[in-house]
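In this section we walk through a basic example: taking a raw amino acid sequence and producing a predicted 3D structure, encoded as discrete structure tokens. The instruction is simple. Fold the sequence below.
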Amino acid sequence: MRRRRLTFILVIQAILFLGHFVVYETWTSFWRTADPPGISALAIVFLLLSVSFVGASLLAFRYYNVWVRAFYMAAAGWLGMLNFFFLASLACWIVNAGVRVTRGSWEPRDIAEVLFGAAAVAGVWGIVNASWVRVKRIDLRIAELPGAWHGKVAALASDLHLGTVRSEGFARRIVAMINEVKPDVVFLTGDFYDGTAVDAERVARPLAELRAQHGVYFVTGNHEEFADPRKYIDALSAAGVRVLNNECVAIDGLQIVGVPYHELATSEGYVAALQESGLDRERPSILLVHAPNRLWESAEAGVSLHLCGHTHQGQFFPWTRVVARIYGKFAYGFHRLNYMQAYTTCGAGTWGPPVRLGSNPEIVVMRFQ
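The resulting token sequence is shown next.
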């Protein structure tokens, strides 16, 4: 396990070195900055920046204090900016090649100014956008929905990733937004925690203020399962949240089923988990699971509505396109699969860079009809 972890860290660090090298070489080449003898100050800055995120992450998994949080937020913010500066670097070389072929008059410095300037604007807006949580409202029609549920409201929140970047204050903000829509039931589909060091009980405490007559239900995501999820489950339970582990709860004729993330590992294990939960395919049901995986198995089991998160809708470009390729139409939003309906939320928080561009953080409010 340690060897695999070390290999993963080294691979990530090598990628970051390469990304920083491309940006540094592009900027100095296009800006036509003469390199002074020895190592320049700019090169040293880029070298330090290239190791900042891995270093901050390693600290964040062990320590939870204001200094580590500040370091991590700065490093994560820079990582998001690096993404756009790297794209700008590639664009610089492509545009410059086009200018040369067409014998245009655009100077390399002008190309760098425009493209790096656009990248900076995109990064700053992405950081601002990531903090602007929207409320998305949808109407749902579920076949044979019990009359007691007609007109009732459910709130879905996922992927808050509380820990180093966002903590108790963000949890209170989300709770206030949910209470404002007066839900009858609240669903939390995993990654409430980021998996880094955190005071799990203190961060979960605001959930005790959620007001929903039919309760608050949670299933673990991959970030709760980085290690033993028991401390997270205990903290959420202490705040009055019902953590579902291959369980089915019937409320006024509607089944609420919860399956933890690790059960998605294999098709056979997932089907067994649904069977273990006691799901009755002849009655309407809402399934809570972290990721939009095993959708065919859910449909075959007779699930009426499949709710999940995990994807963040790619969070920011170009990863928005990567996630769309992986999950197809189920990467985000409301879709159907045979008789089953599915909604994948892009979540309210962020993982890694606190940046969103091409996706908007959300809480989903569903009215049953």
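Looking at the output, two observations stand out. The chain is about 45% helix and 15% strand. The first helix runs from residue 2 to 31. In the next section we compare this with other chains.
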